[in-house]
Amino acid sequence: SSFVLLTFARDSPQNRETILAMGGVPAFVTLLKHHDDEIKLKSAEVINVFSADATGRNGLRGCAGTGALVQALGKAETASGLQEHVVAALANLTTETDKKNLETLNEQGVLVTMCRLLSAPSSSDAVLQAACFSIYNFSKSYRCKKDVLEAGAVTSLVPLLHQCPAAAAAALCALSDDPRARQLCDAKDGAGLGAVIQLLSHADESVRDQAVVIVLNVCAENEQYWDLFMQMGGLNALLTLAAHQSNSTAQLAAARELSRVSERKEYRGQLQGESAQSYVVGLLLSGKEELQRHIIRAVSNIASTPSCAKVGFCFISSQIYMYDFT
Questions:
Q1: For the chain, which has fewer Cβ within 10 Å, the N-terminal or C-terminal residue?
Q2: Distance from CA of residue 5 to its chain's centroid?
Q3: Per-residue model confidence as pLDDT tens for the chain (326 residues)
Q4: Cα 58-61-62 angle, rounded to 5 deg
Q5: Which residues contact 191 (CB under 8 A, 6 or more apart)?
Q6: b/e per residue, 201-213, with b = 16+ CB within 10 A?
């Protein structure tokens, strides 16, 4: 009968409402404890389907479904169908991001369970993405966000930036405005920051945008962290920030750091390259005075090298005189 109801539940929201009215959800929650693995799997699949709708989620909360799912997950084999359906259902329960719902789920063990899954070595991509989605949602509650950070989620998310970049970057971005996220720079010689820098050139624009926000939040105005940024990503990573026109904070940070690194001989030569010049000119012509001041300082430093006249910096210098900075 569970197989028939599964098909019926999949067909439409109206069918799911009918099952809810008939008391079907509590029955499926009870079947999660059945001794037959196939019945448990199908029951979890039905619950997963129900959890996609607000009505179904309310039904699960009303019959102690959350606790049953957490318990079932503890007994599920890693990377099994049962695990995937249970994790997906729990992740869906975090969709309502009001404080009361999230903190109740936290008290029921959902948050710590999701954090644990992030570092489970053989979790499937579907499980990891659902866990990341949950962490993203939990971060919208101050108290839950604190618990996520204390559970070590930042460290656990770093390897996932390569495995499931969209989900992991979204979760890490949501956590990155907390000072504790700066462990990305402090732990393992900054390997976490290095992983984020790689996403600055990701094919997915939303992933790139999230990587920019993570870098800005974590590095802030800490010169030591920006030195690490340069060490990990080099001038190209900084120029990538400069090109991020949709984020004025990113451009300002890039201009500030270009001014700072232009004081170093090892970067001046690179800044005289045609590619770097185009970025410098773009920032100079931005029309934003604070940003322009940083770039003028950078151009002044670069112009102090004997070779600068050979690579077109006369053009950049000429642009400076077009502005009145008094």
A1: C
A2: 37
A3: 566 766 776 666 777 777 777 777 888 888 888 888 888 888 898 899 889 888 889 888 888 899 999 999 888 777 689 999 999 999 999 999 999 999 999 999 999 999 999 988 778 899 999 999 999 999 999 999 999 999 999 999 999 999 999 999 999 999 999 999 999 998 778 999 999 999 999 999 999 999 999 999 999 999 999 999 999 999 999 999 988 888 999 999 999 999 999 898 888 878 877 778 788 888 878 778 888 889 888 888 887 776 655 445 545 555 554 555 44
A4: 85
A5: 158
A6: ebeeeebbbbbbb
Q: Report the length, in residues, of the chain.
A: 326
* Closest to 159 in 3D by CA, of 209, 125, 182: 125
Q: Residues 295, 313: contact at Cβ < 8 Å?
A: no
Q: Which two tokens stand for residue 259?
A: 């001014």
